[in-house]
TrEMBL record:
Taxonomy, superkingdom: Bacteria
Lineage: Bacteria, Bacillati, Actinomycetota, Actinomycetes, Mycobacteriales
Residue ranges constituting the Glycosyltransferase 2-like domain according to the UniProt record: 5-129
EC number assigned by the record: 2.4.1.266
Cofactor: Mn(2+); Mg(2+)
GO molecular function terms noted in the UniProt entry: glycosyltransferase activity
Keywords: Glycosyltransferase, Magnesium, Transferase
Name the record gives this protein: Glucosyl-3-phosphoglycerate synthase
């Protein structure tokens, strides 16, 4: 069995982070790490009390100044992780149950698998579906047009997924919310679509952002998909960890 690190990026998620940590620990991974991106609330305290190893993102690669965005936390989290498999989990989940980490890690018994994405229904308010508006209105249409071989991925932007640490260290990480789309396309390009698995995790509940916030997220996601398809679109991304000087 491969060793497993759970990496949870967090910024001001004090109400939910402890429950996410506890659910992850219930699956007995080798470590659960919370990357705290300078939270101003009790995120770090609550995560540590729940049993996580907590790093402020500035503690990892301290000679490299931080950049805004979730992708930065994930990039630094891969550097901090020691497991062969890294499972990423969002800190704002309110419906997390034990078993998710185990399910995402299970397909890696196949040496040809490099990335495993969670498949789930996204609730919206009191409706069982309808969430994931950036996914449905931006990511999926662009992937169908530009990367049709990835059209079957049902949650391309989902924050719950697992990747081989060696694979992650060899890939660039987009600094913002386009990180999931970038990794999905880059794994498919580098290792083939057959190297990507999906596991059904039922239903997920996240906090819902206002349209004003979603517009910026959609623009970042669109930019990374267009850039990976060969368009000359500026993006902000970190070079692969393996390319950094020792």
């Amino acid at each position: 069995m491969s060793s497993i690190s759970v990496v949870i990026p967090a910024l001001n998620e004090a109400p939910t982070v402890a429950g996410v940590v506890e659910a992850a620990l219930a699956d007995n991974p080798d470590e659960v790490i919370v990357i705290d991106a300078d939270s101003t609330d009790a995120t770090a305290v609550n995560a540590r009390r729940a049993g996580a190893t907590v790093y402020n993102w500035r503690e990892i690669l301290p000679a490299v100044p931080t950049r805004p965005g979730k992708g930065e936390s994930l990039w630094r989290g891969v550097e901090a992780a020691r497991g062969e498999i890294v499972v990423f989990v969002d800190a704002d989940l309110t419906s997390l149950r034990p078993g998710m980490v185990r399910a995402l890690a299970a397909p890696f018994t196949d040496p040809g698998i490099h990335l495993v994405k969670a498949d789930y229904l996204r609730s919206f308010g009191d409706r069982p579906t309808g969430g994931g508006r950036v996914t449905e209105l931006t990511a999926k249409p662009l992937l169908r047009l530009l990367f049709p071989e990835l059209a079957h991925i049902r949650q391309p932007l989902g924050g719950e997924y697992a990747i081989r640490r060696a694979t992650a260290r060899a890939l660039p990480f987009v600094a913002g919310y386009g990180v999931e789309a970038g990794l999905l396309i880059d794994v498919a390009t580098t290792h083939g679509v057959q190297s990507i698995g999906q596991v059904d995790l039922g239903r997920r509940c996240h906090d819902h952002q206002p349209l004003s916030a979603l517009a910026g997220m959609a623009e970042v996601v669109a930019a990374i998909i267009l850039q990976r398809s060969g368009r000359d679109v500026p993006i902000n991304q970190r070079d692969p960890l393996d390319s950094l000087p020792c």
